[in-house]
Amino acid sequence: MAQAAAVAKPPAPPRRRRASATPRRLPYLLIGPAVLLMLGFIAYPVISVFYYSLQHYNPTKPWRNGFAGFDNFVRIFTDDPVFLDTLVFSAKWVFVEVGLQLLFGLALALIVNQTFVGRGVGRALVFSPWAVSGVLTSAIWVLLYNSQTGVTRYLADMGIGTYGTSWLSDTSTVFSAAVVADLWRGVPFFAILILADLQSVSKDLYEAAEVDGASRLKQFWHITLPHLKDAIILSTLLRAVWEFNNVDLLYTLTGGGPAGVTTTLPLYIANTSVDAHDFGYASALTTVAFVILLFCSIVYLRLSKFGGENK
Asked: Most CB atoms within 10 A, among 16, 38, 137, 298?
């Protein structure tokens, strides 16, 4: 009986092997090289800027180099009238550019979202300016605004304006000319993002609204816009940061002129560092610009309730 009971006893379950720690660490090992590259190419330059903002550093005047403390920041807010002027113009530039780009981008996205003959070609033409680099965009518009071979000459041939007029050298027209040039390249960015979000709107919502007698305007206001809320918030924030840091187009078109009326804060920083070789003061200006952008971005996201539910 004892032998039978021993035979009937079920075998002991096999011991569970301890899970290896390598599979759990594998994702971190795979992304490790990318993280190191990001730290090298992003974190190090940012830390360097903060460091040099506390220094007097001018390679052309090495006898003045050394620790400055907060002297550069005191100089910005107490002894630099150009800083405030460039900051005000930067805010004006961002507000006008982002507002117009959003308006025209939304209109283009709604148009190319419709079904019509040649829609693929139309979308390609609408989005093509975004594929052009900023420097090439500037070169194109410099030629278009040229007083001898550009638009103003052909307008003068038709009796509109006078020969030799240069919109980029006139303080009354340079801002509008620069805005139009940047609109040509910036509008497709909004059109691309908004069109991508429009593709995900359910057609059933519009059909139900039509059955209820809602007009096209009401459908746009109560269905399309609420659905596009997060896309619009994100695209305007990204574009505002990019427009604030815009240097290549304004530098090529106007160089900050005439009489400094188109000098943004980043362009002023570039001139201070590259032309004046005052890297310490330029780093302090960069730090202030970084804090301003960070603060405005946080406030904008909080006020817009990005990611919240649409009511």
From this structure: 137
